[in-house]
Protein 1
Amino acid sequence: MENWDDPGMGETLNAPTRRRTRRSHAERKAETSARIKQAVVESIAELGFHRTTAAEISKRSGVSWGAAQHHFGDKDGIFAAVLVDSFNLLVDELEGLPREGAPLRERVDAFVEAAWAHLGGPHYRCTFEILLNMPAPDWGSAGDPLRAETLRIWNGIWTRFFPESDLDERTRTTLQYYAISTLTGLAAMEKFESPTAEQRKSQLGFLKDTLTRELKRGSGEG
């Protein structure tokens, strides 16, 4: 009969122990911040903006309100951080797309579809409620660092998608605002209507046609 306590090699078999990796302070801080912001998004989605209270955020995140204030200052600070996250998610969607060498219409289609995938999704619907209910940010100063950085990133994305366009700055800015305003407007209407897939496809198609036409004009194409 075999002796399982003695495999015949003079050694005892032991299960390997898992070495616990201690997280850094920065990692713990980032994880806590992410939990707080996710709690806000989930609460607004389920309860709405006005019922997303400090107590609700603490309950959902498992973080005391004092700790949340330490990370963000106050509730408006958390909301602002969620808005920044929303913009960064949109940037990630757009920057991950292949662009080089593709025909203009293909790039326009990819740009609109990726932007809509985010702006028409549940995360942006939560951030839209924040935008509706928070005081308007002070964009008046051209030296505002957040405004300057947002515009720099957005212009960089636009230029990478449509490098051949030679529109003057005013026209380019107008076209950019038109694109984002149309998409966010359609996202806002999701709250009040339930368009069919065919209706939404047609609406996005109008935007694609307009962008293609104006960008061709800027590039000198017929």
Note: The chain has two domains: 25-73, 83-219.
Protein 2
Amino acid sequence: MDLNLPLLPLRDIVVFPGMIVPLFVGRDKSVVALEKAMAANKEIFLVAQLDPAEDDPGKDDLYDIGVTATIMQLLKLPDGTVRVLVEGKQRAQLRDLVEHGSEYVEAAVSLVVEQSAEGPEATALMRSVADQFENYSKLNKKMPAETAVQLSEIETPSALADAVAANIQLKVSDKQSLLVEANPLRRLEMAFAFMEGELGVLQVEKKIRGRVKRQMEKTQREYYLNEQMKAIQRELGNDDGEGGDEVAEIQNKIDTMKLSKEAKAKANAELKKLRGMAPMSAEATVAGGS
């Protein structure tokens, strides 16, 4: 089936069937295209650009496969841009562009018939992908916790593959390859492979975060330990050394001060060194005369 729909080129995103996404639109032709769609049946054609920096893309600047979409909500903002909420409907192949002067562009598209898949292989593959996505969502802190639950309730391979593709972090070119693949089982396999690669990256990132956190905690502990040792040294500096056993006085101060186990152990170690370096201390004299 062939259609002519207002064109909305996308800079850095690929929209899949079943995906609901907010878009911010600022280009004049795109804003007019949205207005034309709203005045008709609210249907529009979404397709990613090869080069996101291109402001006025022609047919050669766009990917061949995009999606038809329904405009769910449109809001004009004070700065002239438009916030639009769209829902992807069906894959479609871009055949040609129809220019309407300098106002807007229509896309001549052919709908892509969705393939079906069923049987034990499809069921097993869906289960594997759903389990893999659950692992992925646990490591990806930006992922809402309920997303994995929602995906586990999807019943068709095609819809599951598209939902996973919409939710994993990939380059536009990689997402486009998932959009182009018509076979739902092959698309599930591709999604599984992409998740496997992303899981490896996320696990390394988790290890790095853990290592950095441990280093920060160690640095913080050492800082507090040093501060406590400075406090001990200040206390020791106040001792005038008159009338009594200096080492015993220091030991008493260490025992009575509120110190962490690490600080107390370090203070006792320093005191042990002091005993070794001070043979003329009162304690050493007593030991020598007994």
Note: The beta strands are 2-10, 20-25, 43-48, 65-76, 82-100, 104-111.
